[in-house]
Amino acid sequence: MLKGFKNFLMRGDVIVTAIGLIVALAFSTLVKAFTDNVVEPIIARAGGGNTFGLGWQLGHKGNSATYLNIGAFISALIYFILFMAVVYFAVVLPYKHMQRRRGIAVFEDAPPVKTCPACLSEDIPLAASKCKYCGTQQPPTTVGPVV
């Protein structure tokens, strides 16, 4: 039982995933600091006056608990977009490139498929001549150039 667990942990994709999560956490901290200390003050200043940020006071004036802070939401949205861009360009693209060099396609579109007219299975490859589920002969499919 422990040998199987050890083999699972030592697989390459588990290690790559763990390292990716660690890198993503580090980038998350960096992007969060940027949005909290640079973007949020700019958004708060856009609100004007001596307010808590960009938004509306719903209760008593000066009560931060009843302040609808739209600026914080905009800041969180910018944080999310920046963070996902950093993860994509710093983790996903290099990983795709490394895997492509190894001959493995990752994050690619699924190959086109057809539906079996007999059993209605929807995942039969276009080039298949028989259904892999019911064995029914499949009509030939012509694949034209992709535009």
What report would you give on this structure?
- With 147 residues, this protein is mainly alpha-helical.
- The protein folds into 2 domains: 2-101, Orthogonal Bundle (Non-ribosomal Peptide Synthetase Peptidyl Carrier Protein, Chain A), CATH 1.10.1200; 110-140, no CATH class.
- The protein is 52% helix and 7% strand.
- It has 3 helices and 4 strands, in the order ααββαββ.
- It has a two-stranded antiparallel sheet with strand order 1-2. Strands 3-4 form a two-stranded antiparallel ribbon.
Keywords:
transmembrane; 52% helix; two-stranded antiparallel sheet; single chain; MscL_channel; 147 residues; 7% strand; transmembrane helix; MscL family protein; mainly alpha; Non-ribosomal Peptide Synthetase Peptidyl Carrier Protein, Chain A; MSC/AndL; 2 domains
- Examine the coordinates and then state which fold CATH places here, giving the name of the CATH topology of the largest domain: Non-ribosomal Peptide Synthetase Peptidyl Carrier Protein, Chain A
Over the alpha carbons, how many angstroms does the gyration radius reach? 26 Å
Count of DSSP H/I helices: 3
The level of helicity is 40-55%
Q: Summed up, what is this model?
A:
By secondary structure, the chain is mostly helical.
List the helices and strands and how they pair.
Blueprint: H1 2-9, H2 12-47, E1 55-57, E2 67-69, H3 70-101, E3 113-114, E4 124-125
Antiparallel strand pairs: 1-2, 3-4
Helix pairs in contact: 2-3
